[in-house]
Amino acid sequence: MPKTSDSLILLECLVAGTTHRPGLREFEPQLKAGQRLALQREADSAYDDWAVKVLTEGAEPFWLGYLPEGHNETVARMLDAGFPLTGRLTHKAWEDEWLHLEIEVLMPR
């Protein structure tokens, strides 16, 4: 995982849509603050022209949700242009049935 000094933090935000991810309650114990996350452009989304999925990294990535609409256009454009952006989980907490995930979007220096 890149250290903060090795990367620029482009965005700090919550992950949207976690309440709609099947299996997230069971998967949540595997999520650890500081872990790297993958960002994947979803250009064909019917709901958001700038949709960016947030997933865990690894052989079997788990889809956590999306970057929030209204905060995702710059990241989507950079991914479309081939910039190697990643994410990092900074905090997680349950709030009733909602898994509150805070992340940073990172760009290597």
TrEMBL record:
Keyword Hydrolase included in the entry's annotation: yes
Keyword field: Hydrolase, Metal-binding
Domain HIRAN stretches: 9-105
Highest taxon listed in the record's lineage: Bacteria
InterPro entries in the record: HIRAN (IPR014905)
Metal-binding is among the record's keywords: yes
The name this protein goes by in its record: HIRAN domain-containing protein
